[in-house]
Structures are given as structure tokens and as C-alpha cells.
Amino acid sequence: MWEDLNIFAPPNHPVPFFGELVGQSNCDRTYFQSRRESDVTVLEYVVSGCGTVKVNGNTYTVKTGDVYLLPLFSNHTYHSCSDEPWIKYFINVRGDLPSILIRAYQLELSYVFHAPQTQELFFKLYDIAKQPLDEAFRQEQFTLCFHNILIRLRNCINMPQEGNEAALIKSLIDNTPNKLYSIEDLASRFNRSKDFIIKVFQKQYHITPHAYIIQVKIEIAKQLLLNTSLHIEDIAYLIGYQNPEYFSNLFKYRCGVSPRNFRNQKNRPESTNNK
Fold it and tell me: Is residue 102 located within the same domain as residue 209?
């Protein structure tokens, strides 16, 4: 077998996200990896061939177009399952942010996804790793790519059964946090009136679709503000707002502080009153 590894030295202080390793493997039948209580989060994309992945007691066969997720602190093994070369791209990341995003997108109970639509993002990660870039910029690009991969994996999770329209609407909103749907968009997508969309959603979830869309986006923005160094403009784009100023004003209206001040609060020492 052969591997092309790009390993990056960790920073001198703890950070919420750090892309430690990006690479490509061409594995023969002897290939085998094992981690117990893994100290990294791993994402791997299968270009060709097949392998066997065991995560926390669950066993899967992965093939071309599949992505498998190996979460932080998981027990896992993976190995080739045929004489055919098993070719894959992978990224190992450290920090708390990957686990936060995995939970936010409800991916923590799914380990394998058929997601050929993520191939370009893994290729992009590999390309970024090979380029002579400023390290801070490289890590920022790693964070963006990793986040976009998780969004596409979320889209792979099975939708609710047809007929439960409120759940279908909610699933669409949850699965595509980078989209900014209007009531008109939802009505057109589900071939229903605007009044029906609002009524059925509010009846089941006690919130309007519009308010829920904003709620989902604000919660993701909070996590990205607290756990990444992404520019506020980039966070706005990631959650579907093309106008960063509008996003900032909306965030302040909903949270009582601007995105910048919200981010700064985590580093602000608690004040003490002298008696």
C-alpha cells in the first residue's frame, strides 16, 4: 500500500478546531487501522474499492462514494475487504468544534453515509493541504470544508415518511442550514398554500416556520462564533445570509448583542465587586 500524508504541527495553545492530517491512501488487503477511545475525529471518503468499518460495536461495509465518520472517543477499526485496492481520502481533526457540529446536525448516531456529492470537498481539502499557504488561512479553509461536508452528510439522512408535512418541512430546514427559505419557497416546494405551511408547522411545533428557520441559524452561528475564528461575514454566508450586515443586525435583535460582542464575551473575565 502507499499513503500520501500531509501532517500539520499543532498550535501552542488549545483551539476548538485543528486540521491535523489530510491524505490519500491506496490500501492493499493487509491494510488495518484500530483506535480505542480515539483522540481525533476522522472523516474518510471512499474513491474506489471497499472496506469494513467497525465503530462502537457496529459493523459496516463501505464502497465507492461512501463517507464514514469516526467520532471523538469512539472505538473503531477499519480494513480492506477484498484484493481490489481500497483508495480513499481522509482528514483527521482535533478540538471540541467537530463534536459540537456533529451533534448539531444530528450525525452522532450515523457512521456511514452514501455521499458522492462530498467528493469535491475532500479533493479540495487534499489540494489545500498540498499548497504553500499561510497556516491560519489553511486552517480556516479546513474548517469551512469540514463544515460543508457535515451539511452534505446531514442531507443524506432519511427524510420522514410522506404525509407528515410538518416533519418534512422541519427536516428540510434542519438538513439545509445554508439555505434561507421564504414561506413562498416552502409552499412551492411542498405544493401547498402559504397559510397551510404556516398552520401545519405551527400546530405541531408551536413556532412559525420563519421563526424556526431563524432559530436554527442563530444557534449554529453562536457555535461558530464561540468555537471558530471564522470571520463574521463567512459565518453569515455559511448559514445562508448573503448580506453580513443584515445577519449582524438580526443577531443583535435576537440575542441582545452583536456577533462580535457575543464572541468576545467568552474571553471576558468575570467582574468582581469589591466589598
Answer: no
